């Protein structure tokens, strides 16, 4: 009995033109080749380098394709080969406040599709179930399925960005209610860094996807080209949303700093006003406390009440003026 081509964790489906989808343990079980009339869909989750080599060599047979798909990428890319195209899409998710990046690779050509998922909870199983419920979509070919998978990845981007949008709104609220602290400033900095990394990881995928809408490739149909263009527009809108979130954080930070500065100025004015009012009785009491023999009104019967009254009057006038100036 021959050894399976790949481990049990992976999936191989064969879609013949007139049959229901077939689960396959090994592509060789059906003696399939690139000339078959159906569609082979191979899904690999965190595969080993040996598994990738065995699968890819059978369908493309180009060593540099194998090397490319064995590499973990940090940015999206599209590479054209003879009779096949490779799409690399970066995925991301939040795990305890930390962004975890993964990737999805889609290698497709006439009659075959190979998907690789690394360091991500995303798989194409949901897409597979959806398409198998509508066989007419599978009949459109591997190119259409690749566009469908990209659309699913885009949906995951949207869901993850909603979480970031809530974090940005929360940070913005903290700044504008004047309760920002050091930890809030650190959080804004971390959020802006994460959003910049996400934006640089997904925004190039928009233009890369649009390339399929413009190319006249034999194994990419008209419906698929339109689908790729739609996905490209969605990714572009998400990149714009990330840019808007980053600008919102920047405005919130600047606005929060201005509010803090205004509050500090207000406190400074109040302290200056109270210091001025306290300075008057302090100065008068200090002068009369020198105990010189010859001082104004020193022997007057009403000198003490008069000094207190003068101090109170001057302080009252100052308080009134500062109040009108809104320093108090």
Automatic annotation (TrEMBL):
It is found in: Cell membrane. The keyword Transport applies. It is a multi-pass membrane protein. It holds the Pfam family CorA. Keywords: Cell membrane, Membrane, Transmembrane, Transmembrane helix, Transport. The chain crosses the membrane at residues 271-290, 302-322. It comes from the Bacteria. SUPFAM superfamilies: CorA soluble domain-like, Magnesium transport protein CorA, transmembrane region. Its main location: membrane. Gene3D superfamilies: CorA soluble domain-like, Magnesium transport protein CorA, transmembrane region. The keyword Transmembrane helix applies. Belongs to the CorA metal ion transporter (MIT) (TC 1.A.35) family. This is Magnesium and cobalt transport protein CorA.
